[in-house]
Design brief:
The structure holds 2 protein chains of 2 kinds. By secondary structure, chain A is of the alpha+beta class. Chain A contains 4 helices and 8 strands, in the order E-H-E-E-H-E-E-E-H-E-E-H. In chain A, strand 7 and strand 8 form a beta hairpin. In chain A, helix 2 packs antiparallel against helix 3 and helix 3 crosses helix 4. A 5-stranded mixed sheet of chain B has the order 2-1-5-3-4. Classes of the chains: A alpha+beta, B alpha+beta.
């Protein structure tokens, strides 16, 4: 089943519907696909005008791959897709997506949340945020570490 | 061994990677941070708060007490903010 894990890190945008279609193509045993889309947020109090995503090539893929493999063993999933963009991203654009497919919704929901919590805390990506006043690295939230830790057995 | 730096650690040090040969007394990740910090202001600035620095050996997260013997690539970076 691990052959149905797809992890991609790319500068190009992606189409969520096409990704769902590839995950479910020619299968009739999937009853649930959960999608988490991370989108660049602008305006509001952040007043973000752009984000630039840096990553550690090689380790980013390895780290997400380890967690996807763990998700496949913890829940009865039929497939996992994780796509994370790097480079400069404007408000409203896609940053990343996690898709989890399963026979039933509970496994798909839990695995998607697990993958997101781990990705936020452990996958080597860094956001640099541009605002009208300049640009700076986004500070990590300790909440993200706490969210990942709750899945530790 | 090869060292790699990311995000503001990279910016403060002023380079993305370098090859170094630390003395034999440098045996752990924490020792390496202390040794690097003594090499110049830019390193001291990057590592001024060692507890926020994250490290990986050969693409796996490690702790300050982890031994560096046999490491091919050691990376230093701030807490991650992807997703």
């Amino acid at each position: 089943m691990t052959d149905n894990v797809s992890i991609r890190i790319q500068t190009a945008d992606f189409d969520v519907n096409s990704e769902i279609a590839s995950l479910t193509a020619s299968r009739t045993d999937i009853g649930a696909v959960v999608t988490f889309s991370g989108i660049c947020r602008g305006g509001g109090s952040d007043a973000t005008t752009a984000l630039t995503l840096e990553h550690y090539p090689g380790m980013a893929e390895a780290e997400i791959g380890r967690h996807a493999a763990e998700a496949m063993t913890r829940w009865p999933l039929t497939g996992v897709t994780v796509i994370h963009r790097t480079g400069r991203i404007l408000p409203g654009e896609n940053i990343m997506v996690v898709l989890t497919a399963s026979a039933h919704r509970q496994a798909a929901f839990q695995a998607a949340e697990f993958l997101m919590d781990y990705l936020k805390a452990h996958a080597p990506f860094w956001k640099r945020e541009e605002t009208a006043g300049g640009s700076d690295w986004v500070a990590a939230k300790t909440d993200d570490d706490d969210a990942a830790a709750r899945w530790d057995k | 061994m090869k060292l790699m730096y990311f995000a503001w650690v990279r910016e403060r040090i002023g380079k993305a990677e370098e090859v170094i040969e630390p003395p034999a007394t440098v045996s752990t990740v924490g020792d390496l941070i202390a040794w690097l910090s003594s090499r110049g202001e830019e390193y001291a600035h990057a590592f001024e708060t060692p507890k926020v620095i994250r490290a990986a050996i050969d693409h796996t997260h490690v702790q300050p007490g982890t031994a560096i013997a046999g490491a091919r690539e050691i990376a230093f970076f701030p807490p991650m903010t992807g997703g």
